[in-house]
Amino acid sequence: MDAKLIVDEVRLTPILISDPPLLNVQGVHQPYTPRLVVEVITRGGVSGLGETYGDGVYLDLARPLTETLRGRSVTDVNDLFALAEATDPTTGPTTDPAPGPTTDPAPGPGEASGVDAGGLRGVRTADKLRLSVVSAFETACLDALGKTLGLPVHALLGGKVRDTVEYSAYLFYRWATHPATGPVDDWGAALDPAGIVAQARRFDRAYGFRSFKLKGGVFPPEQEIAAIRALAEAFPGRPLRLDPNGAWSVETSLAVARELKDVLEYLEDPASGTDAMAEIAAGTEVPLATNMCVTTFEEVPEAFAKGAVEIVLCDHHYWGGLGRTRELAALCRTYGVGLSMHSNTHLGISLAAMTQVAATLPELHHACDTHYPWQSEDVVTTRPVFRAGRLTVSDAPGLGVELDRAALAALHRRWLDDDGSLRDRDDAAAMRVADPEWHTPKVPRW
Amino acid sequence: MDAKLIVDEVRLTPILISDPPLLNVQGVHQPYTPRLVVEVITRGGVSGLGETYGDGVYLDLARPLTETLRGRSVTDVNDLFALAEATDPTTGPTTDPAPGPTTDPAPGPGEASGVDAGGLRGVRTADKLRLSVVSAFETACLDALGKTLGLPVHALLGGKVRDTVEYSAYLFYRWATHPATGPVDDWGAALDPAGIVAQARRFDRAYGFRSFKLKGGVFPPEQEIAAIRALAEAFPGRPLRLDPNGAWSVETSLAVARELKDVLEYLEDPASGTDAMAEIAAGTEVPLATNMCVTTFEEVPEAFAKGAVEIVLCDHHYWGGLGRTRELAALCRTYGVGLSMHSNTHLGISLAAMTQVAATLPELHHACDTHYPWQSEDVVTTRPVFRAGRLTVSDAPGLGVELDRAALAALHRRWLDDDGSLRDRDDAAAMRVADPEWHTPKVPRW
Fold first, then answer.
1. Is the CB of residue B360 less than 8 Å away from at least one CB of chain A?
2. Which residues of A touch B326 (CB under 8 A)?
3. What is the pLDDT of residues B338-359, one digit of tens each?
4. B75 touching A, CB under 8 A?
5. A22 CA to centre of own chain
6. Does ipTM top 0.85?
7. Rg of the Cα trace of chain A?
8. DSSP string covering A226-254
9. What is the pLDDT of residue B113?
10. Is B261 an active-site residue?
11. Which of A179, A239, A268, B388 is deepest in the core (most CB within 10 A)?
12. Which residues are within 8 A (CB) of A154 and not within 5 positions of it... i.e. 6 or more apart?
């Protein structure tokens, strides 16, 4: 194999990035959220970039993998999964393909582990954590390969089938400021229908998004129904989505679906669990989407067999990278299930990766989610510009982004300086700063 | 996009290749069988190779696609499917994603179209034909891309996970010579258990194959059971497969499975149709494999839901190329279904493509089928050498094979000189040369 494609070094840089006080069923986003930047540097001197969750459990898995990668070719992404399993300190070096034990006792029904993506990712398993780590290594390898060859990542994935990728505005109930640390932006509070509509208008003006998604599960369903109704009046005919992160019962979900059936593009994870989703799906014509009941390949067969979801939200951080995201798309195509794209708090490296893979998926017929407009900080030199709600697919080599090393160093410094209280994202703990009595609600909450 | 990756020209060369008188349920292989060699030549002067079925229906689909490809990048393989559909002369230029009409009235149950792969490919649809054509174009694009970049095709597919690929000996009942044209090789006849064992011994000696597959559906099941028993005695502990191409009833299939359950690695397509296969699967512990009831993505959900197959035989000519073969592998992995590899009569270009993609599939746990040892002619300059039943995965750029232009010209001359009687493979017609009363048997035959 070409020597210039051999991995010479892998750098991991955990960072803390500023995040606004966005509300969800778990609590509220922390003032700073952990991310991990992965750099794969080749003997040819090219640096490939990847980005994933930065909590300690991910770091623990990523560290031993860096050594394993050294001396291998950046073209070898198929075996990253087996490598990650073999180097997983929670399972030990093994070639046994059986899934290792979970790193934590699995949370019981209605409980959340409180760590993964603020507790919004379902039961935490060693497998899910590994896939998120692999995703950043895979993306970094593809970026390095593309930069070396002079090809965009989409060309390494079989080529783009569209020149722009549509994104959706991600509306949140939110406070104006974090309770302890003060304001991080000028968006102000949004705690009622008028506030949500005002937020949507600003997204519309600034980015041109046509689709709107409201993160629900924060207020009683009547209030969230009213917010969606207000959006439908303010933006007639626009695709609208509501996502309460599994906070509702089957009955509540069906009632909300009845109320909003004329305006919803889809209802995302109204209730928790495949059986509840299947029951709701059977009782409404509103399409159900998920990034909670189907987040791994293992969860696909049961959910598809039960007709629990009509649209799966792909997310390369969840599914193990860009190649696996394409495999999920093939599964959805085969089973006649729709495809959209999910997002957690992320920076420009992940946005570039999302855009590159989305460009290659003929199966993608919904605008992708992104938290990106909420992020005031980044580690890439140039912020991407949304026009008419879309990003142009870069044809530059690799992901088409460049690392801002000064910004990376500053955000890493923040991580180093943290006393450990923010290094693991915990939206319930963040909420307890304002409300000491807060605990993650049992679901169904309503 | 890099100008040297742009397609400058696409050449289609239909050829007729010598084929021995191998017997199957349809009849017998013709003395010459049609194949199509696709060359994609870039502005950089690189020629990428692909190979697929060469019957007229495939040529009719391939010809308009050559013009469409000109001026596009060889990296753009994702949209070949849409392009092929848009240029399909049987559907006309259209952007409608709905499947076009079949090119032929669909054969009724128990009938065979008599053209595709000698009638062994189930109901012929426009979709299946297009996927076979696209597979050759995709392979040729990947070969050209790899040659341009200095990377093997496996590296373009995420990297090999093994250094050698195991193949299986493909045993056939056969005559010594074609009735009208005389002998093409020195293998002699094999028409009983002793003949099959002798054939297996020669495969074992010459190639080191460890697995043996017998093409059945030729003689009454008792005789084929006896042949497998004889193989099991001659080669104790070796993986054995029997494939009657759907010739048996459910009852017969279950009876054969009972007789051979202690020696079969798997039973391939004992009966025709998903329901029959599901009924057999429920009644035996012998794993059922298929390359007939699941040959397209559309056929997957029903077959998997019914538990009709435990092992799917992938085939990049069937499934639309190397990328789609990897998608099939992901589907099988997700649903806990095993993966093996199918072959029809093919040359060294396809063997190289099969080996490259097989090398990238962690899910592949069975030796691949190949007809290649039966082929005395080829269009590549160097015949690959099987050692211990395995081919070494080439790390040379592209597929790692070179076109023998003199050989290609000679085989094309044979195609030009043919009066049209052999340009569409028809194993039943070939059988009628020996037995004018022969007609393709209705299945179940036994």
1. yes
2. 327
3. 999 999 999 999 999 999 999 9
4. yes
5. 15
6. yes
7. 21
8. HHHHHHHHHSTT--EEEE-TTBS-HHHHH
9. 42
10. no
11. A268
12. A160, A356, A357, A359, A360, A393
- Cβ distance B158 to A301 less than 8 Å, yes or no, reads no
Q: Can you tell me the distance from the alpha carbon of A28 to that of A19, in angstroms, rounded to the nearest whole number?
A: 10
For A47, residues 6+ apart whose C-beta sits below 8 A from its C-beta are A39, A40, A41, A144, A147, A403
A362 reaches B (C-beta below 8 A): yes
| Beta-bridge mates of residue A101 | none
Name the CA radius of gyration of chain B, rounded: 21
Amino acid identity, position B413 = R
Q: How many CB pairs under 8 A join A and B?
A: 96
Please check whether residue A247 is in contact with residue A217, taking contact to mean a CB–CB distance below 8 angstroms.
yes
Q: What is the token pair recorded at B309?
A: 């197959």
The whole-number pLDDT of residue B201 equals 98
- Considering the candidates B178, B316, B342, B346, report the single residue annotated as catalytic: B342
CA distances from A78 to A234, B326, B379 (A): 47, 11, 31
Q: How confident is the model at residue A346 (pLDDT cuts 50, 70, 90)?
A: very high
Eight-class DSSP state of B391: E
State the DSSP code for A178: B
A425 φ/ψ sector (left φ>0, alpha ψ -120 to 50, else beta): beta
Structure tokens at B47: 């020629």
Q: Has residue B218 got a pLDDT over 90? A: yes
Average pLDDT, chain A: 93
What residue ranges define each of the domains in chain A, with the CATH number in brackets?
A: 3-153+404-419 (3.30.390.10), 158-392 (3.20.20.120)
Contact B53, B411 (CB under 8 A): no
Helix A126-149 and helix A80-87: axis angle, to 10°? 130
DSSP B442: P
Question: Which pLDDT value is given to residue A121?
Answer: 66
